[in-house]
Structures are given as C-alpha cells and as structure tokens.
Amino acid sequence: MTLIVFYGLAATAVTAAILVVLMNRAVYSALALIVCFGATAGLFFQLGARFIAAVQVIVYAGAIMVLFLFVIMLLDPESEVFLPSRLKKVPGFALAFAVLFTLILFQAADRWTAAQVLTGPIAVTEGASWPGGEIETLAHSLFRDYLLPFEVTSILILVAVLGAVVLTRQHHEKE
Amino acid sequence: MISATHYLTLAAILFAIGTVGVITRRNVITMFMCVELMLNAVNLTFITFSRFLDQIDGQIFVFFVMTVAAAEAAVGLALIVVLSRHTGTLDVDQANTMKW
Amino acid sequence: MVLENYWILILFPLLGAAINGILGRRFPHPVIAWLSCSMVALSFLVALLSFFSFIRLPEDQRIITHHLYTWIQSGNFVSEVSFLLDPLSMVMILVVTGVGFLIHIYSLGYMAGQSGYYRYFAYLNLFIFMMSVLVLADNYLLMFVGWEGVGLCSYLLIGFYFEKKNAGDAAKKAFILNRIGDVGFLIGVFLIFRTFESVQYLTVFQAVSEQFAVMGTEFGVLGAITLLLFIGATGKSAQVPLYVWLPDAMEGPTPVSALIHAATMVTAGVYMIARSAPLYSRAPETLFIIAVVGISTALLAALIATVQRDIKKVLAYSTISQLGYMFLAIGVGAFGASVFHLLTHAFFKALLFLGSGSVIMALHHEQDLFKMGGLRKYLPVTFYTMWMGALALAGVPLFSGFFSKDAILWKTFAAGNEALWLMGVVVAGLTAFYISRLMFLAFHGRERSEKQHQDAPDPSPKEPSWSVTLPLIILAGFSLLAGFLGLPSYWGSNRLEEFLAPSFRFQLSGQPAAAMEHAHLTEVILTLVTLAVAFFGFALAYHFYIKNPQVAVRLANRFSWLYSLLRRKFLVDEIYDWLLVGPVQRLSQTILWKGMDVRVIDGLVHGTASLMQAWSHRVKRIQSGYARLYATWILGGALLILFYYYWISL
C-alpha cells in the first residue's frame, strides 16, 4: 500500500517538475509547480513529517506561488517574444548534468542505505517515531536549541519585506 | 519495501530537473521557479534523513529553508521586476552586460 | 729603524691615490701635483734610507720579512699579506720609486693644463702603490695582487684620453692580452700550491731545493709550473705572442709610456721569473723556450722598429726588443745579467721616452719622424740627453747599456748557445740602426716640421720647462753611470751581481760559465764584434738619413714588399684579428647574441608573455555576460567535486 502511494506521489512530482521546465507559458509553469509542491507535501506526510507537510502547502504552495503568480501577471506575460539566443549548446550540457547527477546520487544513496540499520518499513498511518508526538518534539527543539536562528529568521523576513518595497519603488518626478 | 534510497533518488531526480530548468529556460521568472523546485528537492532529502536517522533536526532545517525561501522569493521577485523594467524584457539573455 | 718599517713606503702612494682620486676634482692643480709628487718622494726616501741601512747588514742577513696580517685562511691554504726585502726587491723598489718620482716631476710640466689632471696623478700614484706591492710581496698571491693592479693602472692610464676611440681600444687590448697571460700565471700558482702546499717564496724555494736536488730529466711538474708562469710573463712583459698591446699602448700620455711601458710594469715579468730562479734553474726545457722566445721577440721587434714613422712606436718596439734581451739572459741562466739590463734599460728607455715627450710637446703633438728635423738648435737639453740615452741603448762603451747588454751576450755565448749569441749581435746592430735613425730624423738635418704655431710671437719650437728637462738630465746621468755597477770580469768586479747573489741562493748552480779556456780573451773579442756591428748600424743610419736620403727611399721602393711587411708589423695584428678576434666576434654575434640571447632568452620571456595573452584572449570568453552560462559552469564544477568525492569513497 505504501508502495503504491509512494510511487503515485513520486510520479506526480516528477511529471509536474518536468512540466515546469517544459511549459512555454509562465503561468502554466507556476501551476505545475504548485502541483509538484502538493505531491511533495504528500511525501512529507508519508515520511511522518506531518507538520512540515502542512507548512509546505500553506507557505510554499499557498503564499510563495501566489506571489509568483502576482508577479507574472504584473509583468505582462502575454507579450513575450524572445529573440533567438546565442547559447545553443546549453541544454545539452544541462541534460548531461542531470543524468550524471542522478546516477551518482542514486549510487550514493544506495550505498548509504545499505550501510545503515534503519531500513524498516514505514507506514503512513504509523505515528511519528518521535516520543510525545512529532509536533511536540519539533517545538521543543525549535524553541530551545534553535531559538536564536528562529529569532534571526524573523528579522530576515522583515528585511526581505523592506527590501522588496525599497527595490521596486519607482521614483516619480516632482512636478 | 521502501527504503531511504527511493526517497533520496526521487529527490535527486527532482533536483536534476530543477537544474536543467534553471539553465535551459530563458524566462527569468521560470528560472526562479526552477530554483524553488531545487529547494523543494533538498527539503525532501532533509526530511528523509530526519526520518531515517531519527533526529528532528532535519525537519527544523526544512522549516528554516522554507522561511528563507519565502524571503528570498520576495526579494528575488522584486529584483526581477526591477530587471524587467530596466531591460524591457523578461529574457535573461538580454541582461548580458556583465562581461569582458 | 727605517729598515724595520720599510714596507710603509707602500702606503704613501696609496694615500695619495685615494685623496686625489676621491677629492682631487675640487683641488687646484698645484695641490694635486704637490700631493702626489710628495707621496712618491716619501716612498723613494724610505726606500733610499732602507737601502743605506740594508747594505750595512752582513750578506747573510739581507733578508727582512714583515708580516702585516693574514689575508686568507682556508683549510691548509694560508695567504698572508707580508713583505720581503732582499737584494732583488731592494733593487726593484729603488727603481720603481726613483724613476717613478722623476716621472711624477716630469708630468708636472707635461700634463700642465690638461683636463683630468687629478685623475692622472691619482692613477699614477695608484700604479706606484701596486708596483711596490708586486715587488715587495713575499708570496705569489700577493704578487699577483700587484700584478693585476698594475695591469689595471695600465688600462686606466692608456685609456686616459678616453674620448678618443683609439685610446679606449688600446686600453682594452692591453688588458685583455694581459689577462690571457694571467690565466697561465694563475694556473702556475695553483700548481705551485698543489706541489709545495704554500705560495710563499721562501717556503717554496726551500722545498724545491730539497725535493729537486738533482736536475730532473723529464719535463715534470716544475717544467709545467715554470712554463705557465712564463706565459703570464709574456703577457705582462710583451713577448711573443702577447706583445701586440704595447705599441698600441702609446696612445697614453708619454710619461705613462715611460714609466709603465718601459721602466716598470713591463719588467714585472722579468722580475717574477728572476724571483722564481730556484724554480727555473731546475727546468732546463722551459729556460730554453724562454731564451728562444726572448731572442725571437728581440729580433722581430727590432726589425719592425727600423721602419716606423711614429717616434713613440719606434721606442715601443725597442722596449719589446730589449725585454727580449732580458728574457734571453734568463733563458741562459744569467739572472743577474737580466736584472742588470732591467736596471739600465729603465734609465735609458725612460729617458728616451721622456725626451720624445719633450719633442712632441715642443712640436705641438707631432709624432711623425718624417715631419721633424733640425730640432737640435731649438731643444738643446733634450738633444744632448736623448743622445746619451740613445748611445746607452745602442751599447756604446762606457754607457750603461754597453755593460748590461754585453753581459747578456757574453753569458749567452759562454753557455754554449752560439746561434742565439749571433742573433743577439744582429739585434744589437739593428738597435743601433733604428735609434740613430730616430735621432737623425728628429734632431739633425733639414727642418721638415709643418706644424708651427702661426699666431704665437715665436712660432719655433721651444724647450719645455724645468720640470721636463730636469728628469731628463738626471736620467741621462744614470744612463751614463749605472753601467759601472756591473763591470765585466776582465775589467773589474760585477758589484751588482754580487749584491744580488743572495736572492738567487736557492738556485741550482750549473756548470760555471767561465769554464772555457781563454775566457777573458774570448769575452773581449766578442765585445769587439758586437761593437763593430753596432757601429755598422750607426753608420748605415747616418748614410741613409743624413748623407744621402735618396738611398733610403730607393731601397724602400726596390724592396717595397719587405718594406711594407716591416711597416705593417709583419701583419701580426691582422693575423690575430683574422684568426682569433674575428671568429670570437662572429661567434658572439651569431650564436651567443642572436641565438641565445635573442631567440632563447628573449623568446622565453616574450613567448611567455604572448602565450599568456593568447590564452587569456580565449579564456576571457568565459565571461560572456550570459547568466545561464555562468550557471552552467558552476554546475559543471559542482558535478566534478561531487564526482571526486564519490570516487574516493569507493
């Protein structure tokens, strides 16, 4: 059962990813990306990271992608006409890279798993293997061991917001 | 039986697709979206390791990655807006003045 | 007291040279002159006082050494700065400082008003210092310091008028040829050290007399040493084949020619060999070579001198010829006679050169004999003193040259070398010829001078000042009197040779030369033969240049090939050019310069630069401006690293 779920989600994710890359229109790519994020959230859930799965859907698919769509719309996507590029060989390189990369990592992952003990079957319905539940463990760790990065992140977000506003300010001439 | 290898390989595939997209696409927004795809793949890797090493730290990391990705998306998109105003197009190949 | 500190005489000219050299540019001329002349005068005074104390010592104590400091100490090689005063060096130092002093006085008049006055006197003082070091040194290495030093001063002074290209070339030629000889000299010194483990004279000579008590039969190490040292002497003392620098050295001021190239520096080779008599007396093959080289040089130079037009060139070749005589004497083992001739030659040759300088000055730098004539009534002092020098050179009885030349010829004959003796007599005849030719052309006969100072109130030549004529007179006196130091055996005692005997005490005593029967009679007969030949030469010159000048011209035309050959110095310079100088120059030009320097070294440097340029021209295209390309490169690199880590984890 978990196998089917896994492969289904995996297939969805991969297909969506490929669509992101291949689609001509930016809006379509964005939508495909949202599907991919959704599938990934499912995978997170299957791995027992239920909180993170939720956060994925809310933040990533819900906020970030919406932002993306806003910008796409803002920048008039319909009138794109791209002149022929001078870089003809780049896609070939990219593809070669992708293949090699995947192969290497597959090999690496395989060998890593073989060396580890924890290869037990997992089940979606099985609870988190963390004592006291997953969210509690997460909260404990986050607000104790990782408190400082947590606070700093908030400042980071503040800075990002300010930056976004400042960067896109348009200077109007005083009449 | 699903082992870590499956998840990790999946993450690798997603990452590779994202990379191909970054290099291949000319629309700057689409490039950025492929970057998000790569980040997503990395998140998957972290969660996988968190699960199979029985440490919560992987999930904490993902948490932070997402946060930073959000901030990054905001600023990045702002920059894209400025760039497109400057060069008048969304073609990343037109912004080629940083050269010899 | 003076005798213990005799060596300080070296320091006076050094001091003079240093002060004049560094500060002299700002001194007025009289100060410069006074400084340098007084320094040499002090040296001469010390030498003279030492001499008076010296001769009061008993004979076997006439060796005084003084150790100043240890120069080099490396392993078992020790070289000291220490000095030796024995009869030989006593004679030499008196000549050096005495004649040197006279020439300094002469230079006051000769160099008056010329630019570079301070330089001249500084170099002259430096020369006296170096020459003193040479003759007073007690080991070969310190002598070599002086040897090189006088070579340096010779270079500086020959090239004194350095704005003239000829002067610079002549200076270089002198130095280079000296250098060639010095290679032989140095290798000889190395061999000495290797054989005897010391370079100190006394140590070496002691060792030689012990190790080589019997006359060796094969060539051996002593032969090699002596031959190599002799090669050094041929360079310094202008023998065949390294003599060609001396005629060119006449580019220097005339007092320089007198001091360095007549009286002192060129005699350094003779001194060196005389000093090494213990070595040489045990190397008969080398001695033979020396004798042959000496007499050949004497003959060659005398022949060339007979047809030269430049007054100084005649005297230069004459010097070479007389040096040949000195080497001939050495070659037959007559070291004392050689030094005797060195002494007399110093006087009369310096006199002749200084006199010629007086003539040159009076005629405003005319040096061509055929443009002189009739000067006897304008330059009386010069005239009479030069004739005294000429007679001494020609070997006229009672003048000093007669006694010393005769001693050499007699010793040559007595040692059994009749052929060499005969050649020596021929040279004596030629000597008489060319020197009387010089005198007749310059002072007698018709006035042929074209150079007259038109706008001076009295355009005729004038005798130069006292500073020029006084040394002439003094030297003339010595040219006359010095001979009586070495009377031949049928006349009296040879005081000089007796005085010098302790210096040669280590030498192997060969068969006594006077083992012939009727030795005295033979000697007198030989002397008369020589005189007859000399008189013949004299008369021939008189006939050619006074009585019947046409004869000379007709002869020159009849035998124009011979005349031309002699005039062009047997083409020796041209042969050297073709044989040695040309190929070396071409080698340097084509291979070393164009090949090595330009192609290899420049090629490397420029090549590296252009290689860098070419590469960077290509490499810079990576920065294309396209962000996607940059990303590709980044990913390529990342993949490589990834691959690497994967690989090493296998």
Walk me through what this model shows.
The complex is a heterotrimer of chains A (175), B (100) and C (650). With 175 residues, chain A is mainly α. Helices cover 71% and strands 0% of the residues of chain A. In chain A, helix 2 (26-46) runs antiparallel to helix 3. Chain B is an all-alpha fold. Chain B has a domain at 26-91: Helix Hairpins (Orthogonal Bundle), CATH 1.10.287.3510. Chain B has helices spanning 4-24, 28-53, 57-87. In chain B, helix 2 runs antiparallel to helix 3 (57-87). In chain C, strands 1-2 form a two-stranded antiparallel ribbon. At the A-B interface, helix 1, helix 2, helix 3, helix 4 and helix 5 of A face helix 1, helix 2 and helix 3 of B.
Topology, number of strands of chain C: 2
Can you give the helix content of chain A as a percent range? over 70%
The radius of gyration over CA of chain C amounts to 30 Å
* Largest β sheet strand count, sense and barrel closure of chain C: 2 strands, antiparallel
What value does the Rg of chain A take, in angstroms?
A: 21 Å
Within the largest sheet of chain C, what's the order of strands? Answer: 1-2
Q: How would you briefly describe this protein structure?
A:
The complex is a heterotrimer of chains A (175), B (100) and C (650). Chain A has 175 residues and is mainly α.
Task: Walk me through the topology.
The complex is a heterotrimer of chains A (175), B (100) and C (650).
Chain A: H1 2-22, H2 26-46, H3 50-74, H4 90-115, H5 134-144, H6 147-167
Chain B: H1 4-24, H2 28-53, H3 57-87
Chain C: H1 11-23, H2 29-54, E1 64-74, E2 77-85, H3 87-110, H4 117-136, H5 140-158, H6 165-196, H7 201-211, H8 220-236, H9 245-248, H10 254-263, H11 268-275, H12 277-280, H13 284-305, H14 311-331, H15 335-362, H16 380-394, H17 400-414, H18 418-443, H19 466-481, H20 495-500, H21 519-547, H22 549-558, H23 560-567, H24 572-619, H25 627-649
Antiparallel strand pairs in C: 1-2
Helix pairs in contact in C: 1-2, 1-4, 2-3, 2-4, 3-4, 3-10, 3-15, 3-19, 4-5, 5-6, 5-10, 6-8, 8-11, 8-13, 10-15, 13-14, 13-18, 14-15, 14-17, 14-18, 15-16, 15-17, 15-19, 16-18, 16-19, 17-18, 17-21, 18-21, 21-22, 22-23
